[in-house]
Amino acid sequence: MTLLVSRTVRSLLRKTPFSTTGTTTPIGASIRTVTTLQETLAAQVPEKQKKMAELKKSYGSEVIGQVTVDQCIGGARGVKCMLWETSNLDPDEGIRFRGLTIPECQAVLPTYSGKAGDGEPLLESLFWLLLTSEVPTKEQADSLTADLHSRAKLPSHVVPLLNSLPKDMHPMTQFTIGLAACQTESVFAKAYQDGVPKNLYHEYALEDILSVVAKLPEIAATIYRNVYHDGVVSQDTSLDFAGNFCRMLGYNDPSFDELMRLYLCIHTDHEGGNASAHATHLVGSTLSDPFLSYAAGLNALAGPLHGLANQEVLKWIQELKDKFESEGKPVNAETITEFAWDTLNAKKVIPGYGHAVLRKTDPRYTCQREFALKHMPDDELFKVVDTIYEVMPDILKEHGKVANPYPNVDSHSGVLLWHYGFTQYQYYTVLFGVSRAVGGLSQLYWDRALGLPLERPKSVTPEWIWSQVQK
Ligand code: CMX
C-alpha cells in the first residue's frame, strides 16, 4: 500500500473557486503555503481521465464477471458492475478508505489536536483523503474546515420550512425535505442550464458537494432541536466540523466531540453498492445536481435494512430490557438468548447483525467497541451490547439462514450516543446521513470528473430468464 502524502507547495497565485482551469488573481504580499483542495484535485483530474480513457480503449471488452439467475433475482449481490474510487470493502477485512483501514486512518490522519494518532481523525481529514487519495496536512484539513464553515449558511426559506414540519414526522423525512429545499443554491444546476460544457461539470459539482456537506449539520441540528428541545441552534465555528455540529445539537463535552469525530468518519463510505451510496451515484448519473442526488441517498439510508438499523438496535434493546425488568429478570446472556429466539421465531430480523458483503465482525463495530472500552467501560448498556455480541453469532449460526452472523456498524453506534444522554434513537439515522454525504459525494465528484455516463443496467423479464435456462 502506498501512502500518497501531499506536497505543500508555495503558491503565489490565489485561484478562484472555479480556478481549476487556471483563472488566477495575483495576491501580492499575501503568500499561501497550503495547497487547496481544489488545486489538489485539479492536478489529479487530467491524469485520471487519461488512465480511464486508456482502460476503456485497451480493455473495454475484457470480461470481469458473470451474472447468475440468483444474482439477477437476488439484488445483484456480488455483480461487479459499478466503478467506485473512494473505498473498497473486503468481506473478511472490512472497509479500506483509499487503501487505508480504519486503524490506519486513525494512525495517520490529522486530529483536532493536530497530531495524528492523538485522538480521532477529523472528518475533514477523511473527506480530503476520500476526494484526493492523499493524506492532508493539518493545515489542509483546517483550510477545509474553514471552507465548510463559510458555506454552512442555509437559504432563508429552509429553517422556516423545517420549523413548519410536524414534530412527529420522522427526522429522516425532515432531513431529506431540508436538503432538497437547499437545492435552490445549486451552482451545478444553474451551470447546466447556462450550457456549461461537459468537461467542466466536475468543477461545479465540487462547489455543490462542499456546500451540501457544509449545510447538513444545521439542517440536522435544527430538526433535533425542534423535535426534542427548544428549536435554538447555537454554533462555535472556532471548532472543527464535528465539534461545531455537537454545539449545534446542544452538546458541550470534549469526549462527545471525539465520539462524533469517530462516528462521522466511520460512516462516510462503504464502497459503492450499498443503497445510500448507490442511490446517490445513480441519481447523479442523470446529471441531477448533488443536492438532489444526495437527497435520494438519504431516502435509501432511511430503510430499516440499511441506516435505520441503528435506531432499531436501540429499540430492540429497550424492548428487551422492558420485558425482563417487568418480569423481574436480569438482562444477561440467558434472557438475551430467549429474546433473540422470540425475534427470530416471529420472522423478524435481529437489527445490527448480518451484512450483504461482510463475513466477519465489522471493523466499524470493533473501533466503536474500543472507544467504549476506553471512555465508558462500566456503562450498563455497553455491557448489554457486549453480552449480545457474546451470544448472538452462535444463535444466528444455529438459526441457519444468515450468511454473516456477526455485528455491523449499527449494532454499536446507539449505545455510545446513549451514554452521553443522546437517547432519542429515532434520530440516530440523521447522524449517519450527515456522515454518508462525505463518501457518496466524494465519489460523485469523480463520477463527473471522469465523465461517467447515465447508469442504465438491462432488466429482463421472468419469461426471458425461463427461455434462457430452458434452452
Ligand atoms: N436477523 C435475522 N435474519 C437475518 C438477519 C438478521 N440480522 N440477517 C439476514 N437474515 C436473513 C435474511 O432476511 C434472509 O432471509 P430470507 O432468506 O428469509 O430472505 C437470510 O437471512 C439470508 O440473508 P443474508 O444473505 O445473510 O443477508 P442479505 O445480504 O440478504 O441482507 C442485511 C443483509 C444487512 C439486510 C441483513 O443481514 C439484515 O437484515 N440485517 C439486519 C438489519 C441491519 O442490521 N441492517 C444494517 C446493515 C448495515 C447498514 O447498511 O447500515
From TrEMBL:
Listed InterPro entries: Citrate_synth-like_lrg_a-sub (IPR016142), Citrate_synth-like_sm_a-sub (IPR016143), Citrate_synthase (IPR002020), Citrate_synthase_AS (IPR019810), Citrate_synthase_euk (IPR010109), Citrate_synthase_sf (IPR036969)
Entry's Gene Ontology molecular function annotations: acyltransferase activity, acyl groups converted into alkyl on transfer
GO CC, any one term: mitochondrial matrix
One Pfam family cited in the UniProt record for this chain: Citrate_synt
Gene3D superfamilies linked to this entry: Citrate Synthase, domain 1 (1.10.580.10), Cytochrome P450-Terp, domain 2 (1.10.230.10)
GO biological process: carbohydrate metabolic process; citrate metabolic process; tricarboxylic acid cycle
Stated family: Belongs to the citrate synthase family.
Protein name: Citrate synthase
Organism: Phaeodactylum tricornutum (strain CCAP 1055/1)
Lineage summary: Eukaryota, Sar, Stramenopiles, Ochrophyta, Bacillariophyta
